[in-house]
Design a protein that fits this description.
With about 120 residues, this protein is mainly alpha-helical. Helix content is about 65%, strand content about 0%. The protein contains four helices and no strands. The longest helix is centred in the middle third of the chain and has 22 residues.
Length: about 120
């Protein structure tokens, strides 16, 4: 247990210092995030932005409540492929295990688009 706690402390220190300083993904994210924020502040009405954000959050809520239980993944709970047990799982993702659940998400978006 003591070794585990010590490893956790070292790992946290690494994440707080070296990881963010030397990680190009983090640097890119921070740059793009700052650029997007500046662009939005200059060119988008705050009221409109707030309205768009509420719409996005509502769509995210609908997607989660309606689709979370419907998404079928190519791997079973044990980590192996589902194969013959669930052939639909291979047709429920865009590619391999990426974008799983998209048919339900497409329905949620389609319904939201037609009602607005």
């Amino acid at each position: 247990q003591q070794q585990h706690d010590q490893d956790n402390v070292l790992f946290q220190a690494y994440l707080e210092q070296n990881y963010t300083q030397d990680n190009l993904d983090v640097i890119l994210y921070e740059y793009v995030n700052a650029s997007l924020t500046a662009t939005l502040e200059r060119h988008v009405d705050p009221h409109q932005l707030s309205q768009w954000l509420r719409q996005l959050q509502e769509l995210q809520h609908q997607a989660q409540s309606k689709c979370q239980a419907k998404a079928q993944f190519p791997c079973g709970s044990g980590g192996g492929g589902q194969g013959r047990k669930n052939p639909q799982a291979s047709h429920n993702c865009y590619w391999r295990d990426m974008g799983c659940g998209y048919p339900c998400l497409d329905q949620v978006f389609s319904l939201a688009s037609s009602s607005s």
